[in-house]
Design goal:
With 221 residues, this protein is of the alpha+beta class. It is built from one helix and 13 strands, in the order αβββββββββββββ. The chain has two domains: 1-47; 49-215, Jelly Rolls (Sandwich), CATH 2.60.120. The chain has one helix at residues 2-46; strands spanning 49-53, 63-65, 71-78, 82-93, 100-110, 113-131, 136-142, 147-149, 152-163, 169-172, 188-191, 202-204, 209-215.
């Protein structure tokens, strides 16, 4: 009988160990799943939202130069106090080996004037690009702007865009087609900044861009 009892005990211990291992694996899986869910929630909460959109660039309307002394300004409206972190915009440049690299920007209370509420020079992040017959349309992102703004209407000015080959760069038009944001379509202006010093600022069709950030954050001033 003793050998039989010993085999039964060994079998029970083996079953107990297997059961504990299985329970431990399930517990670790649950813990891992909870951790992944938490990280997912955190990531989604930190991700910026579209605060304003002026519609996409179809590549069929046109574009305006935003370098070599020339610049474009577009209005946008914020429904709530916000932090603007990024701007997604469409830049046209020659050849798919000639990406836009940097840009300067300002957020002002008037087109090419008024009070400058935020400004900077940013490395442009590449989102995607589309080849055309004479140009490539680059969807780029101005990053890390961190502009705190109360609700209202402002102007985004883009200029001094530098491409890899130091060629002309143009901000693609949308004319607000397909936009759904309050305040759209944007009001846009072009400043040629002619060499003789006499700019001929004039209204133009509005450009394709999205304002990204966090709404509901009170400004610090």
């Amino acid at each position: 009988m003793k050998p039989c009892i010993r085999h039964q005990c060994q079998g029970q211990r083996a079953h107990w160990r297997a059961s504990n291992i299985a329970q431990g694996a399930v517990s670790r899986m649950k813990s891992l799943a909870a951790s992944l869910l938490f990280l997912s929630i955190c990531a989604s909460s930190m991700e910026g939202q579209v605060l304003y959109s002026n519609g996409p660039d179809t590549g069929t309307i046109g574009a305006w130069p935003v370098n070599f002394g020339q610049s474009v300004s577009n209005s946008f409206t914020l429904e709530a106090d916000s932090i603007v972190t990024d701007v997604v915009l469409s830049i046209w440049a020659a050849d798919d080996r000639n990406p836009p690299q940097t840009a300067k920007w300002e957020i002002t209370t008037e087109p090419f004037g008024g009070e400058v509420l935020a400004s900077g020079g940013s490395i442009l992040g590449l989102i995607t690009y589309t080849d055309g017959r004479l140009y490539t349309r680059w969807t780029m992102e101005i990053q890390n702007m961190n502009a705190r703004l109360p609700c209202g209407t402002y102007y985004l000015q883009v200029y001094d865009v530098i491409t890899a080959w130091r060629t002309w760069a143009f901000w693609g038009e949308s004319n607000g087609i397909g936009c759904t944001s309050p305040g759209c379509p944007s009001t846009a202006y072009f400043d040629p900044a002619l060499a003789n010093g006499y700019g001929l600022t004039r209204p133009i069709g509005s450009e394709a861009f999205e304002i990204i950030g966090t709404a509901g954050v009170p400004p610090s001033w």
